[in-house]
Design brief:
heterodimer, A: 505 residues, alpha+beta, 10-stranded mixed beta sheet, 4-stranded antiparallel beta sheet, 20 strands, globular, B: 321 residues, mainly alpha, MetI-like fold, 78% helix
Chain lengths: 505, 321
Amino acid sequence: MNIKKTSLYGTATAITCALALSACGGSGGGSAAGGTYDKDATVNIGSLYEPQNLDNTAGGGQGVTEALNGNVYEGLFKLTDDGEVEPLLAQEHTVSEDGLTYTFTLRDGVTFHSGKKLTSEDVKYSLEKVLADDSQSARKSSLDVVKDIATPDARTLEVTLSKRSISFVYNLSYVWVINSEAKNLKTSEDGTGPFTLKKWTRGSALSLDRFPGYWGDAAASRQVVFHYYKDATALNNALLTDAVDVVTSEQSPDALGQFTSNAKYKVNDGDSTTKLLLAFNDKAKPFTDVKVRQAVSAAIDDKKLLESVWDGYGKEIGSMVPPTDPWYEDLTKTDTHDPARAKKLLKEAGYADGFSFTLDTPNYDPHPTAATFIKSELAKVGVTVKINTITPDEWYTKVYQNHDFTATLQEHVNDRDLVWYGNPDFYWGYDNPQVTRWVEQAEAAATEAEQTELLKKVNRKTAEDAASEWLYLYPQIVVANTKVSGYPLNGLNSQFFAYDIKKKS
Amino acid sequence: MARYLLRRFVFLLVSLALASVVLFALLRLLPGDPANALTSVGASPEQIAAARHSIGSDQPLPEQFTHWLGQLVSGDLGTSFVSTLPVGPEVASRLDLTIPLTLAAFVLAVLIAVPAGFVAAYKRHTWYGALLSGVSQLGIAVPVFWLGMILVAVFALNAGWLPAGGFPPDGWAVPGEAVRSLVLPVVTIALVMSASLIRYVRSATLDVLGSDYLRTARALGSSFGQAMWRHGLRNASVPVVSVLGIELASTLLGAVVVESVFALPGLGSMLVTGIAQHDYPVVQGVLFVSTLAVLLIGFAADLVQRVIDPRLRDRLSGGTR
């Protein structure tokens, strides 16, 4: 989960609060650019997310993932746009019978940007860097199962786990392989990716040059430059004046009209993993009662809310699982809009005359809009909502840390974050021992099929229980000039693979 | 004069010291914990405590303050909590943009406001004098971000003459591009700033025009131009200079809105990001540097006034010159 903070001007800068599981996007398509393209082109990318620094274990934030993951740094594995795990720097790997020992064989002929040859020592160093005490990596807690790392030879890495972890390989796709001798990683880099860092001008731009010694297919364009904006309007203006060719993630649906009506631009509607939640405190009355939660869910017309916020973009969801997760099932039917049923459920729960509760609402878009909408929807079934507007900091302390709330709104950014319903200590307080067991068993599963089956059960159970009210799935909107193609469409978890982007000459 | 300079300098140091105390104290009164920004969700209390320790926010406030003061004295603005990079070099690189932006806007505003203000006063009974006066009145009411957006829409989006925003990543290494990208922001700030300056210049000129000494000078045979040049200009510029000092100082940080509209990596945008992230060293660093700038500008404005107006010298320094 990412909790987004906003600056004084309403631009979202994410703080590094990413929870366990999440995925990077594969390279998708973008529009099909026929004809020739310019191999020496500079592709200008516009983004709202500037890195804090360039080290993803030292609080680089969402921006560093966007700019560097897959472009400058690579992991042993990568995740495709569909959420599939594929080998990258690992050529192959084997798992012992008991599921505790993983043996990786590294790809041959890989060199770092500094010219040093990749060895298993570097991978060991990189993994230890994520696990270090002062590491701020979002992967740290999920990789805690690593007990021992051995390097029998320069191309072999052997990792022993303390217990089975089916997500281990998936989690490795988030571990950047870094030269063990590299210095100043907060402002420079030494990775193995198709681009090298040319220059980072803080507050302004970050430019990447094609790495001539790359082991795989060379990057399509000679240079890509990420330009950073604090203001969405300024970013859109940059696209309109050709200062940038593509915008990684459009956050203001109101502005899309000027691009959809112009043949020079293509508006791509991809799948995100960001869900907007009305999270009940399942340990606070009256939301301890399943029927009350179901009633509130049934009373809110999610579709209408999505329409009003995103104007036709985005998707309805019936649970925490976005379509790109392997255990996705369409459960929107368990959460249909039915005010009559809501009233009936309230009556059964002993709230025939309704009740009132306080909704802690983060003070930045889209939460205030959603809160007002929910208030009017619930008024129709006799439930009174008191909207309490809070800052991201207050949210973190009051809701997340102290669990001092009845209900709240929050966007949950990451993929594969269904598993948090298995943690009874998580802020929303959903406590179902059966679900907890399923989540644990899923992680200890021997096969992915088994894991998927168990998490589907979790998915169905939490949806039936209305553990939270999942309002909608955000769209992932990439707007680009039709001159460029090959950019990622889904950009799961702020990924933006730039190596396939081509620009027409 | 030397005594005055010394006294003024001591005053400057005392102001700076007081400002640093206020700065430090006010920031600590803000709700929220910077350690939150440094730990991932699900961090254990130990991890949060470790984060606090690493940035020193677990120390008693007086200790934190003396630590910061010690750094300042040795010319170090500290290290950002969030980026863990030193603040000083970043402030310096932001000033590369903010200083030229502010100065250019200031000069342009003066070039517009002084003649316009004079004409508005001297020709106040003509239609164009009244028009100038009215337009400047209207200009004061125009929000700077709105003007910026209009200029972008007209000159960047429609005409395509100038970039809509941004600053070349290579900065002043490509002077042409850098200058082009600053044209609209400079014009935006200058127009808004000159609107209020025109009012001051106009009223200062009106005072002078109605003064006895000007009439006497004319009676003694000076032409209007000579009288204005010898007596009027000096007298009129004294209040204007102090307003100019204030305007210049407020533009330094006031450019924050313009920086946002035009996506410029200036000091203002650094401050806004710092505040949003509870990044105390960044906020303190930016505010300290700008406080210093404001005090220096005030100092300079005082000196200029004394040069222009001998009466100030006599009164304030007890007659010593």
